[in-house]
Amino acid sequence: MATARPHGNWASLLLPIADDDSIDFSRLAEAIDSLIAAGVDGIYSNGTACEFYAQTEAEFDAIQALLAGKCSAAGMAFMIGASQTDPILQLARIRRAAQLRPRAIQVILPDWWPVSNDEARAFLLRASEAAAGIDLVLYNPPHAKRVLAPADLAIATDGTAVVATKLTMLGDDFFAEARQHLSHLAVFVPGHHLATGQREGVAAGAFSNVACLSPRGAQRWTDLMATDLAAALEIETRLRAFITGHIMPFAEAGYSNAALDKLLAAIGGWANVGTRLRAPYRSIPETEALALRAVAMAQIPEIMLT
Question: Which is it for strands 104-107 and 186-188: parallel, antiparallel or unpaired?
Fold first, then answer.
């Protein structure tokens, strides 16, 4: 991977929601300070965990201004998620985000009707123009209306400002297909698969659910991959067992990905984010996190750093 492309362990903002369903900006500021102190490779806003789909435009602007101000003052790399299911509003968010000079801007494909490859590329070309020289990262999660296979992604990003992508790892041939079609992009995999992605020569990094659990532990684990990949892979085996055995049952019970990420943060206890989501989405009770903290400490102590 070219050194100019984004890489490493990127930690997500998680949105603290007060009892009246408002955003608690004081707790959000404290969480940003905690991420900076953890020394992660970078911080990004408005992914799924930051509930970008449930913000007014004024709230969006306030979140990005807070992140940009704190990261710029600390010398911390940051990305802004300009994602919006409405493509017109998303383009406007991209233009405003570009003024804050982030390392990159995350975008999604228009999400009401599944786009074709040509429609995806047409949108990404417009997004590239709106970004005014800032790199783009395409966030293409498993619940997107159109999930692009690596070959489709190569077509959709051709000639655009997209330099990286967060991908769904679909099928047994994913790594081979990524090596074949995506050498022009920095590929970000789910955080708990990062060591495997590095072993396969595909993963540049992760927009990391592991950093939701412990940003400091996720960073130390990521750094370990450069010096002792075998040890990092052994930790990944236990980490994936913890996710499968203790977190995925909540997904199977119908909780959203944002609820899972906030549960992980509550288990880690590194910031006072809370597990509450904005309505109408269900929140996992914080008592569940307290019960799982001891399990995580026993199963993956290398990750559970504060």
Answer: unpaired
Its pTM surpasses 0.90: yes
Domains for the chain: give ranges and CATH numbers. Answer: 8-227 (3.20.20.70)
Structure tokens belonging to residue 48: 């799924």
Q: List CB contacts of 252: < 8 A, sequence separation 6 or more.
A: none
Query: What would the mean pLDDT of 172-192 be, rounded to a whole number?
Result: 95
Instruction: Give alpha helix (H) positions in 160-285.
Output: 174-181, 194-199, 209-213, 215-224, 229-242, 248-252, 257-268
Residue at token pair 């995806």: 120
Alpha helix segments (H runs only) across the chain: 25-38, 57-74, 87-98, 117-131, 150-157, 174-181, 194-199, 209-213, 215-224, 229-242, 248-252, 257-268, 286-299
- Find residue 80's DSSP bridge partners: 105
Count of Cβ atoms closer than 10 Å to residue 118 Cβ: 10
Residue 243 DSSP symbol = I
